[in-house]
Amino acid sequence: MKFRFESENVPEWDIVLRANITQVEADKFFEFISDYEQPVLQITDRLNGRHVRIYMHDIVAIQVQKNNLQIETSTDTYEIRSTLASFMAKLDKYFVQVSRSSAIQLRLLKEVKIVWGNAVAVLAGGKEVEISRRYLSSLKAQLEELRYD
After folding, report:
1. Superfamily grouping for domain 40-147
2. How far is CA 61 from CA 91, 129, 142, in A?
3. Which of 7, 10, 80, 114 is found 20 to 30 A from 138 (Cα to Cα)?
């Protein structure tokens, strides 16, 4: 595999792929490259009133706390006023709801373990989030879908 970079004064990237591969393989490569630019969410943290930019790939889990959402990253926890459904609509395909009040990022899912008959998602950094039986099948389906992506 060879890589070549040419510096030009253009406003956007222009990537050309020359290879003996199928269009499907090329499309997967371009999707991977386009995912490199991670979306940023701008929120107002209710805990201290700060306006914060959160990179989507930094979000570990989202949990409902009374009328607020708690957004957990690897370094901080933020609180916003929103419903889980409306916040989930802003996220990409790597986020899945695992209970009525919780969602996780699948890229950070390390394992699903059973504790006293209940499924628990173990995320990077050791964070554990309970998975309700009602959402377990949709979690499995989404993991299967991403496996073949």
Report:
1. LytTr DNA-binding domain (2.40.50.1020)
2. 12, 8, 16
3. 80
Task: Please tell me whether residue 56 adopts helix, strand or coil conformation.
Answer: helix
Helix/strand/coil percentages in the chain, nearest 5: 30, 35, 35
Using a 10 angstrom Cβ sphere, with 0-12 exposed, 13-18 middle and 19 or more buried, the burial of residue 97 is buried
Look up residue 82 and give its amino acid.
Answer: S
Task: Give per-residue pLDDT as tens, 52-81.
Answer: 999 898 999 999 998 899 999 989 999 999
Helix (H) or strand (E) holding 87: helix 84-88
How is residue 134 written in tokens?
A: 């009602």
Provide the 8-state DSSP code for 67: T
Question: 43: Cβ–Cβ under 8 A, 6 or more apart, which residues?
Answer: 51, 52, 54, 71, 78, 80
Classify strands 95-99 and 109-115 as parallel, antiparallel or unpaired.
unpaired
Give 90-99 pLDDT, tens digit per residue.
998 899 999 9
Dist. CA 14–CA 29, nearest whole Å: 14
